[in-house]
Backbone:
């Protein structure tokens, strides 16, 4: 007798979706009838290795934050993706001795740079250790700024002029803001006061080096996708509506097939016993914005998501982080340095546009490369995504000039546009003030809640499972979090069918 295999549809071919599919397939290729539905024209999602000016670059995920125990590192090593065949982005690791230049072009004096850098490092250590002082927070921003004020008060020295409109305190502010802007890049929070300080102590990295992947992050993705039978991954298929069965009858109409039906952009339908949704938190947020979100081409749910899940999606933060690469024209000036930028708090060089003023650095993608990289967050990222390339290049020239690099000529640029891309609507998640790590757990909870075990007759269990970086309590915002979340949801199904504990 041929028995029908349970049908599992995974929405999204990012690392969470592909990790889930890989785990389901490799556990037993005959256990499930599997498909991966991806709206975009490529796999990888927020992992996207590309080329620019003859260099390999990463438009999205770039770093493995700690190698020891990290599954992304283990895969990259196993498939020899860490080999150095040609230079690659961030091959020098995090620069150990960048130069910090103040707006106007002077290198920031070590006597100011060092104490502020030490202060910032000790504050980050405090957050990591969880040993926060009583009354700290609720936002990360106020915690950091109060510490700067305390540092100044303890010094009890008058504010001295450094010439022009720079004083010692203005320079300290500028260096401190540069550090905060690095943190904004790491977390995606536009305003650090919107980041929950207490929850930040739950975020974890693996021990070991921070490295990038020599042959490109996308190699990890290609490896995960390599073993599926042809047709498993379906590109260019956008899910518009998720119809599911919230109870055993009554409130929601029982679908003819399913119990879950995915209605796609072209009105075709994929029915499944289980759907693993891996779309970004930005896409989930947009799905809540209007009852009929799908009339705008966004993802919709019928019935709508229950309030516990909607509230968690609303409360958590999801910001925009973008990368901008620029190619320098060849010239006589020699290597571009690893340059951190300390912008004057009141603006000093009028020509530098506002949208450049919170980028922490401009540096080569590796020592000696003519391709430079700078990062944008929040409002500045949104503005940069909207601008023409010519306007971006003139803003870059004003900035380079304002930092003493006036002889450098930018030939062309390329940039990411994660915020305005409807398939992502942002870059990664953070725990906002008013939410907590528990909200990440709530997003991860399968629907219907309690499944058939909640006494509501026969709502089939495990219809909608949720994976993706915003569903991992300690590794949210990262590739490792997304990977682990995919494995978690695959294991949930495997355990349900094989009645074994696979963790
Ligand atoms: C600029 C940037 C830098 C980063 N740097 C790092 C880093 O250095 N290290 C690190 O660990 N992480 C980094 N990250 C984060 C990391 O890239 C993500 O956390 C991770 O890739 C998310 O994977 P995911 O599978 O959860 O989601 P995604 O990659 O977003 O996958 C979801 C997929 O769903 C698809 N989709 C969306 N809507 C629909 C729909 N309606 N129907 C069908 N498919 C749909 C999307 O096209 C996408 O392919 C960075 C991210 C960005 C943007």
Residues:
């Amino acid at each position: 007798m041929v028995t029908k295999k349970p049908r599992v549809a995974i929405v999204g071919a990012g690392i969470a979706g592909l990790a889930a599919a890989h785990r389901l397939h490799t556990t037993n290729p005959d256990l499930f009838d599997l498909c991966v539905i991806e709206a975009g024209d490529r796999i990888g999602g927020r992992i996207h290795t590309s080329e620019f000016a003859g260099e390999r670059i990463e438009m999205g995920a770039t770093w493995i934050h700690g190698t020891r125990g990290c599954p992304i590192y283990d895969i990259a090593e196993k498939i020899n993706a860490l080999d150095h065949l040609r230079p690659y982005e961030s091959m020098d690791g995090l620069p150990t001795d960048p130069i910090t230049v103040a707006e106007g072009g002077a290198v920031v004096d070590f006597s100011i740079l060092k104490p502020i850098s030490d202060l910032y490092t000790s504050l980050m250590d405090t957050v990591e250790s969880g040993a926060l002082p009583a009354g700290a927070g609720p936002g990360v921003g106020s915690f950091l700024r109060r510490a700067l004020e305390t540092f100044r008060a303890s010094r009890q020295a008058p504010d001295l002029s450094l010439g022009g409109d720079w004083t010692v305190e203005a320079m300290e502010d500028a260096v401190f803001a540069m550090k905060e802007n690095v943190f904004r890049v790491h977390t995606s929070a536009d305003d650090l006061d919107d980041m929950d300080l207490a929850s930040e102590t739950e975020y974890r990295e693996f021990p070991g080096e921070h490295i990038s992947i020599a042959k490109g992050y996308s190699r990890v993705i290609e490896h995960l996708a390599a073993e599926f039978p042809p047709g498993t991954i379906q590109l260019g298929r956008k899910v518009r509506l998720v119809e599911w069965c919230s109870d055993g009858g009554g409130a929601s109409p029982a679908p003819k097939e399913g119990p879950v039906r995915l209605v796609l952009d072209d009105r075709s339908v994929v029915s499944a016993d289980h759907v693993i949704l891996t779309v970004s938190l930005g896409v989930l947020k947009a799905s809540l914005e209007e009852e009929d979100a799908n009339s705008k081409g966004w993802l919709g749910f019928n019935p709508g998501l229950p309030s516990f899940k909607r509230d968690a999606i609303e409360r958590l933060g999801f910001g925009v982080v973008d990368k901008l690469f620029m190619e320098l024209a060849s010239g006589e000036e020699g290597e571009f340095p690893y340059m951190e930028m300390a912008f004057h708090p009141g603006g000093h060089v009028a020509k530098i546009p506002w949208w450049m003023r919170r980028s922490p650095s401009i540096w080569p993608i590796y020592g000696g490369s003519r391709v430079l990289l700078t990062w944008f967050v929040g409002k500045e990222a949104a503005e940069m995504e909207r601008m023409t390339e010519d306007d971006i290049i003139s803003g870059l020239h004003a900035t380079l000039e304002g930092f003493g690099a006036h002889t450098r000529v930018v030939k062309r640029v390329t940039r990411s546009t994660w915020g305005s891309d409807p398939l992502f609507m942002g870059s990664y998640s953070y725990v906002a003030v008013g939410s907590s790590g528990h909200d990440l757990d709530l997003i991860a909870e399968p629907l219907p809640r309690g499944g058939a075990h909640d006494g509501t007759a026969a709502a089939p269990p495990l219809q909608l499972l949720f994976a993706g970086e915003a569903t991992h309590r300690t590794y949210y915002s990262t590739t490792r979090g997304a990977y682990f979340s995919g494995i978690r949801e695959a294991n949930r199904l495997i355990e349900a069918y094989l009645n074994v504990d696979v963790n």
Notes: Residues 110-200 form one domain. The pocket of flavin-adenine dinucleotide is lined by residues 11-17, 37-40, 45-47, 60-63, 238-239, 278-280, 283, 299, 321, 323, 416, 418, 423-424, 427-428, 468-469, 477-480, 482 (CB under 6 Å).
